[in-house]
Write a structure and sequence with these properties.
The chain is mainly α. The protein contains 18 helices and no strands. Helix 2 (about 30-45) runs parallel beside helix 17. It starts with 15 loop residues before the first helix and ends with a helix. The model has no long low-confidence stretch (mean pLDDT about 85).
């Protein structure tokens, strides 16, 4: 369902992040190369440090390895119970059966007492309940002092850059697309700056208020995905179909919030109240809304101008575009699995994935070379 939802930085139909990367290059060839490099680096190279640290954490902070011998049989019995949840050991949840709950309580208390004099067990227990702590404990125990400081600075830098981007970006939308458009007289430059600063403060205050209602990062990403569910297809089709107009885009932007609210309202079957079923419902709801608006409104008046401007430069065959897309996807996944096989699985597996990467990458480059030669001969 990658095509259906708006997702920051990976919008199906392109977005600000991608546009900045493309428009900062000197020509189309460099733009394609920059986009390909980002996707290979982001999806094939970047995950492996995280994956390796995560795998190491599973081994280093594995709970049974740190539990005293006298508690291991009882812990094994608890983990074998039907519906077992790590939250049973933290006290955040308990089994339904009274006998099971009593046994869990005994094991939980035994682990708590043992952890008081065993910091490694305390960390393993915390990691077992919440695996996100694996990265924190790995940094705590295995990063030298200087590298730990560098990691903290990187975290703060990433946080501040994201915050400043979103606040300034949001203020620019509100100022340029709402305030200035609705104003009777265009405000002067200093006035725009002062009002933009005020909007940044308002957005920051609203963000702080919203952050008090957030329990986990996962919840934020699920909320973002569901409140953009169904918008992705419009973002793709607007470049190819003149029937997509501003009313359709606005509808597809607002409708997911309504669909998300309906899925949580209690009016619908309980099966649609949680992810991923709520996501599928919102996609269907949003799609129905924007299709209805599309049928009731006129095509975009600027489409003929856009079409004449773009099509006059020549069109690449849809078969070539699809071939490039498939080859790029195969190359990226092949590189991802080749690196993983080289790091984790001895043998010829990495060789085969590497060969797949070389072949698909070479064919991808050839499609661009052939197009360049074709334009040269036509010129």
């Amino acid at each position: 369902m990658w095509w259906s939802a708006w997702y920051p930085g990976a919008e199906p139909g392109g977005g600000g992040y991608i546009a900045q990367r493309v428009m900062s290059t000197k020509d189309e060839t460099h733009a394609v190369g920059a986009t390909l490099f980002f996707n290979f680096a982001h999806y094939a190279l970047r995950p492996w440090p995280w994956i390796l640290v995560g795998l190491a954490a599973i081994t280093l902070f594995r709970l049974p390895s740190h539990v005293p011998a006298e508690l291991q049989p009882a812990l094994a019995q608890v983990q074998a119970m039907e519906g077992y949840s790590p939250k049973w050991l933290s006290g955040d949840a308990s089994p339904d059966q009274l006998a099971d709950a009593t046994q869990v309580l005994v094991v939980r208390e035994g682990l708590r007492q043992a952890a008081q004099n065993n910091p490694a067990l305390a960390e393993a227990l915390k990691y077992h309940v919440d695996p996100r702590f694996g990265y924190i404990f790995a940094m705590k125990h295995y990063l030298p002092t200087g590298w730990m400081g560098l990691m903290l600075v990187a975290f703060f830098s990433a946080y501040m850059s994201t915050i400043s981007t979103q606040l300034n970006w949001g203020a620019s939308y509100l100022m340029n697309d709402v305030w200035i458009r609705l104003a009777k007289d265009k405000p002067s430059g200093p006035t725009i700056v002062r009002r933009s600063f005020g909007l940044v403060l308002v957005l920051a205050a609203l963000s702080l208020a919203v952050s008090t209602q957030i329990d986990s990062i996962k919840g934020v990403w699920l909320f973002i995905m569901e409140c953009g569910a169904g918008l992705g297809l419009v973002l793709i089709l607007r470049w190819f179909w003149g029937r997509i107009n501003a009313y359709v885009e606005i509808t597809a932007t607002i409708a997911p919030f309504i669909g998300f609210g309906l899925s949580r309202s209690g009016w619908l079957p309980e099966s649609l109240a949680s992810f991923p079923n709520s996501f599928f419902f919102t996609v269907a709801f949003t799609t129905a809304c924007w299709l209805l608006v599309l049928l009731l409104t006129q095509p975009s008046p600027s489409w003929p101008t856009f079409k004449a401007r773009i099509y006059s430069k020549g069109l690449t065959s849809i078969r070539i575009l699809l071939s490039r897309w498939i080859l790029a996807v195969v190359a990226a996944y092949s590189l991802l699995f080749a690196l993983g096989s080289f790091l984790l699985h001895p043998g010829s597996e990495a060789l085969w994935y590497g060969l797949s990467f070389v072949i698909s990458g070479t064919l991808l480059l050839l499609t661009f070379r052939m197009s360049t030669l074709s334009r040269m001969f036509k010129g």
